[in-house]
Amino acid sequence: MIASVFPFPTVLLQILILFVAIAIESWFLQKLLKLGPKTSVQYTTILNLSCACLGWFLFFGIESVMPKDLREQLIDYMILGGGRDIYPAITLIAVLLLAITFFAKWEGLEFLQNLVAGTKRTSKPQFIGPPSLTKRPPQKTFQVTTVFGAMLIAHTVSNCVILTLLFLQTSN
User: Fold this and answer.
1) Contact 22/41 with Cβ under 8 angstroms?
2) How confident is the model at residue 81 (pLDDT cuts 50, 70, 90)?
3) How would DSSP label each residue in 90-155?
4) How far is CA 84 from CA 19, 20, 132, 156, in A?
5) b/e map 10-21, b = 16+ CB within 10 Å
6) Which residues have a Cβ under 8 Å from the Cβ of 57 and sit 6 or more positions away?
7) pLDDT digits (tens, 9 = 90+) for 118-158
8) Residues 105, 151: contact at Cβ < 8 Å?
9) pTM of the model
């Protein structure tokens, strides 16, 4: 009975999207912000799960106040995969949601970094002694130093990959 009512394909697709977004965004945050692997995965997991939960709450909240015809079309499209005649509206909503989730992730990442920096009690030990003769000069590499730039790149790449996966899924 539950298999005929519960939207398993939608839930599985959401889980796949979360895994892809976490993997891609954590790699970019690790490389661009010089975070540790564990820290970058933790940050992106918190940010992506928060955005997904808030997105579903907003979806069900907005859906409950919509007119019946529009509600049926939206649920048919989101849950059941039908409703091909509402693509322009869905495209506009998707672009808007991409921008909103980017800003939410950017502010969330800054909040998490400030939260962690504020609770950190120990400082990094410093070695005081003669300079090492084997120390190489630092290599010049392209580096994004701002949280905004790193999150913009990570969010853009992960959403391009997700949109490609969604396109391949709908073309079958």
Assistant:
1) yes
2) low
3) HHHHHHHHHHHHHHHHHHHHHHHHHHHHHH--PPPP---SPPPTTPPPPPP-----SHHHHHHHHH
4) 27, 26, 66, 26
5) eeebeeebbebb
6) none
7) 865 444 444 444 555 555 655 555 555 688 999 999 999 99
8) yes
9) 0.75
